[in-house]
Specification:
Layout lengths: L7 E4 L17 E4 L6 E7 L7 H6 L1 E4 L3 E8 L6 E10 L9 E4 L4 E2 L4 E4 L4 E11 L4 E3 L22 E5 L5 E8 L9 E8 L5 E7 L7 E2 L1 E2 L8 E8 L5 E11 L8 E7 L7 H21 L1
């Protein structure tokens, strides 16, 4: 029987043997044809979600630890959810979008609504396939899964895939310098440095002039921390004369801290003039002044 989509039919059966004897009718059953795929109502990665294709393309999660993926779904077709499949995508052609996908765990039963994965450093995209008991399958993009050629008229919101940058390495600090090159106790000393990271932006750099007891925030050269490599600087006041060591440290967007990198330089005191010499200079000046006055 060609059953209309989502309509129900009641049926019951009985058996007959070769001699024509019949059994009684079985209890009534309902047969329903389900061609409507499930709907992904929410999809989050480390608590971050998106709605709409354009917004999802701009959404990015950065982390230095494991990734937690959660979802909620609904099924209006009537057959119920059968399983979930979570997928991880990578960009093998380096065009900024995923082109290679793999399932990262066995099929998950309908009572599971989250999973955790801990990949190595890199850039990934995550999505989900949801299948019902009638074989209908939908993705986080609201599209039928590969191999499912069915269609329905249910309107769905695009909820992924969601991009994740995993950064487990600290930034590096290099090229620490000071200016002026031969500072005195009357000078402000400007400390400059370069901070670099492979995966996430530099978040903040700091400098210490007291061995690490206190730290002063440094300023990005363009006044905004938003790049993988930042040139930073800080003016330091009230330095006593002698050999000085400053420390610089930086952290990236996900909280990885660099080592404390040191830089040493000398602060010079002004030359000291003896009292006798100072008086001699003053006496000479007074004589000159007197001669000038007598000439007039």
């Amino acid at each position: 029987d060609n059953i209309p989509d989502t309509s129900g039919r009641c049926w019951k059966t009985k058996a007959q043997d070769e001699f024509g004897a019949e059994s009684g009718w079985s209890s009534k059953r309902t047969l329903k044809k389900d061609t409507v795929a499930p709907t992904v109502d929410s999809f989050t990665v480390n608590g971050v979600s998106c709605e709409g294709e354009e917004n999802c393309q701009k959404t990015e999660v950065a982390t230095n630890s494991a990734i937690t993926i959660t979802w909620t779904v609904s099924d209006t077709g009537g057959s119920g959810i059968e399983h979930y499949q979570v997928f991880q995508g990578t960009d093998t052609t380096e065009d900024g979008s995923p082109d290679s996908w793999k399932q990262i765990s066995p099929n998950l039963s309908s009572d599971i609504t989250s999973t955790t994965t801990d990949p190595g450093e890199g850039t990934y995209w995550y999505g989900i396939h949801v299948s019902d008991n009638a074989g209908n399958c939908i993705t986080e993009k609201g599209e039928r899964c590969p191999g499912d050629n069915g269609s329905d008229t249910v309107s769905r919101i695009v909820r992924g895939p969601i991009k994740v940058v995993v950064d487990k390495s600290p930034p590096t600090v290099s090229n620490i310098q000071h200016s002026p090159s031969n500072p005195s106790i009357f000078n402000e000393v400007t400390i400059t440095a370069t901070a670099s990271d492979s995966f996430t932006e530099i978040f903040l750099c700091q400098v210490s002039k007291d061995g690490g007891e206190t730290w002063l925030d440094m300023t990005a050269s363009d006044e905004v921390y938003d790049e993988l490599t930042e040139n930073v600087e800080k003016n330091i006041k009230t330095l006593n004369s002698g050999l000085k060591t400053v420390k610089v440290k930086c952290r990236d967007l996900v909280g990885n801290f660099s080592d404390e990198t040191t830089h040493t330089f000398t602060v010079f005191a002004p030359p000291v003039v003896s009292t006798d010499k100072a008086l001699g200079i003053l006496g000479t000046q007074a004589t000159l002044n007197g001669n000038l006055e007598s000439d007039y």
